[in-house]
Amino acid sequence: MSDPSPPTDPAAIALGALGWILSEEARAQRFLDLTGLTPDGLRAALAEPATHRAVFEFLAAHEPDLLGAAAALGFAPETLVAAGQELSR
User: Fold this and answer.
1) For residue 42, is it within any domain?
2) Taking the chain, what is the end-to-end CA distance rounded to the nearest angstrom?
3) Is 1 part of any domain?
4) For the chain, how many structural domains are there in total?
5) Looking at the domain assignment, is residue 61 inside a domain?
6) How many other CB atoms are found less than 10 A from the CB of residue 11?
7) Is 8:76 a contact under the CB 8 Å cutoff?
8) What is the rounded distance in angstroms from the CA atom of residue 5 to the CA atom of residue 54?
9) What is the spatial distance between Cα 37 and Cα 79, in angstroms, rounded to a whole number?
10) Which of 9, 11, 79, 83 could form a disulfide bond with 75, CB atoms 3.0-4.6 angstroms apart?
11) Cα–Cα distances in Å, from 85 out to 7, 49, 81?
12) Eight-class DSSP state of 7
């Protein structure tokens, strides 16, 4: 059986990246502060395209986060940027 390939759907990538963002308390709090979301608001908006775009914007705004998320998810940083751009269309 072969390994499953990583998701290519921008929404799936965004949710994976959000999991990475939320895995570290200070980074999670920075995301909430910058987006204006509360934990309850974030839970309610998980499926919203605006939330997915916010994830990619957050990562693109701070290169260490972009590189960390890309490494953790097994993507090139450019893949995360491209997924964010696809959602912005």
Assistant:
1) yes
2) 36
3) no
4) 1
5) yes
6) 18
7) no
8) 25
9) 25
10) 79
11) 16, 12, 6
12) P
Token pair recorded at residue 30: 């920075």
Q: Is there a domain that residue 39 lies in? A: yes
Place of tokens 């309850």: 40
Tokens of 37: 């979301």
Measure the CA–CA gap between 12 and 40, rounded to whole angstroms. 20
* Model confidence at 6: pLDDT above 90: no
Distance CA 89, CA 78 (A): 17
pLDDT tens digit sequence for 7-54: 679 999 999 999 999 999 999 999 999 999 999 999 999 999 999 999
* Nearest-angstrom CA–CA distance, 29 and 21: 9
The Cα 1–Cα 20 span in angstroms is 27
The parent domain of residue 35 ranges over 30-87
Q: How many residues does the chain have?
A: 89
